[in-house]
Amino acid sequence: MTTHRTAPILVIGNGPAAHQVLDRLRHFGCEDPVTVLGAEDTPAYHRALLTSALDGSLPVEAMELPPPPGDTTILTGVCAVRIDRLRRRVHTADGDVFPYARLILATGATPLLPDLPGLRTPDGSPAAGVAVLRTLADCARLTDPAVVAARTPVTILGAGSLGVEAAFALALKNRPVTLVHPRPWPMDHLLDAAAGALVRDRLTAAGVELVAGSPATAYTPATEGAPGTLALADGTALPAHTLLLCTGVLPETGLARTAGLAVRTGIVVDDRMRTDDPLIHALGDCAEHRGNRGGSLASGWAQAEALARHLASGARGVAPARRVLRPRIAGPGLVVLGMPGRAPSDETITLNDPANGRYARLELTGEHITAGVLLGFDRAIATTTELYVHDAPVPRDRLSLLLGRAPRLARAGSEEITPETVICLCNNVTHQDLTRAWHAGAQGLAELADATRATTGCGGCARQVESLCTSLASSTPATTGS
Ligand SMILES: Cc1cc2nc3c(=O)[nH]c(=O)nc-3n(C[C@H](O)[C@H](O)[C@H](O)COP(=O)(O)OP(=O)(O)OC[C@H]3O[C@@H](n4cnc5c(N)ncnc54)[C@H](O)[C@@H]3O)c2cc1C
């Protein structure tokens, strides 16, 4: 057993929320040494890009987040198992002890296994053939060259945004995919029937078989030579060589709970991201702030900002996070702003154009977007998302907004990109910022992420940044570096 020196700030978890708080701490002038304990044996990476690793469009290295600035020690493959609040110490699975002055919990979330007969072995772990997608290790199992080469079919349970993304990614890798969903259309918690039908059509066009409308009732695990079987309430029995569960996540609260901290669904925190122990904070997917579980990068970012400000200067307050979801699906883009259909609004604009595979719904209160869905309106996605994220008023001519013709607004259509076009909406990085960084030597995806922070938010811009790299490389004379 090794007892380490007291860390002024000790962080448990090395995911995107931990990474963001380290960055913001330095930004706000906190120079305290920080030690991070991460259970995964990799550097911090952008979890939201996992499906791009699944379909092979992004090398794993490109998902890595840049090394945090300042005096930071990152220990990977180290799992914290107990917090001793009395002595202010954290114990790890290896028997090491890390005393702390201040502790930050950024333990994230873990996949939720539904209560379905047959899914678990008697010790509670997933049964044979059952897979999840939360970590690079999960992704590596699903992309094992042997199963990819054998085109082993995958049955995905749950057509929320993760299930839909995973289905497109696996289909792109030529894997036979069946997507099973208990409700009549995919992503029904965010999309209405019209938008859901368009996503269903896209899935079908990509070769995914969608089995919707009947809940799963039981799983019979695979045995040697025979695939598992997923039974549905309507009597269907689906073969399931690999059963990929995309059935939600649960905040990882075990450490906090056993340390006696207040936990409801997540670890309860106040506006300073403090738990009921003033020396312990929590943020990201593991935290519950004002009754809300985060579950998105936007909420983790807002919490990291609030916590870093508090630790650096004692300031208080969490800016409300504006949730933007950009599921990576084949074809023209999809964006979901906030939670459409949940709260009353003054005005709803709907444009349904199934013949062209397009759908838009914007909910407005006053002149501001409170929620929305855009599918197939690529030129409008950047402007509309930007207006929503910044809570800016929309133009009077709503149709021009949807058609991407709104004046003085950035556009996402490839021919109409201007230097001011915001490419990374999460970090407000423009085309010009990226071009300048590229010319200054950041000539790859990881380097541009490092220099500008583009792609380190929701990751929805990664492909756009990658193609910008390609086009800059082909249009620039080979003088740099020579
Ligand atoms: C495929 C996929 C796509 C997604 N797409 C989007 C998207 O488009 N937009 C969006 O907003 N969100 C998306 N998300 C969700 C987003 O990735 C999460 O909100 C984000 O990762 C939360 O960050 P976090 O750091 O709080 O938690 P996590 O990313 O879960 O990281 C927590 C880390 O803590 C470690 N840890 C846990 N317990 C311990 C311990 N005891 N000791 C040491 N380490 C520990 C874990 O191993 C993990 O590495 C997506 C998620 C997935 C899986």
Automatic annotation (TrEMBL):
GO function terms (MF aspect): iron-sulfur cluster binding; metal ion binding; oxidoreductase activity
Cofactors required: siroheme; [4Fe-4S] cluster
InterPro entries on file: BFD-like_2Fe2S-bd_dom (IPR007419), BFD-like_2Fe2S-bd_dom_sf (IPR041854), FAD/NAD-bd_sf (IPR036188), FAD/NAD-binding_dom (IPR023753), NasD-like (IPR052034)
Keywords assigned by UniProt, alphabetized: Heme, Iron, Iron-sulfur, Metal-binding, Oxidoreductase
Pathway: Nitrogen metabolism; nitrate reduction (assimilation)
UniProt xrefs under Pfam families: Fer2_BFD, Pyr_redox_2
Start and end residues of each FAD/NAD(P)-binding domain: 9-291
Highest taxon of the lineage: Bacteria
Domain BFD-like [2Fe-2S]-binding positions: 422-468
Annotated family: Belongs to the nitrite and sulfite reductase 4Fe-4S domain family.
Name of the featured protein: NAD(P)/FAD-dependent oxidoreductase
Species, as recorded: Streptomyces vinaceus
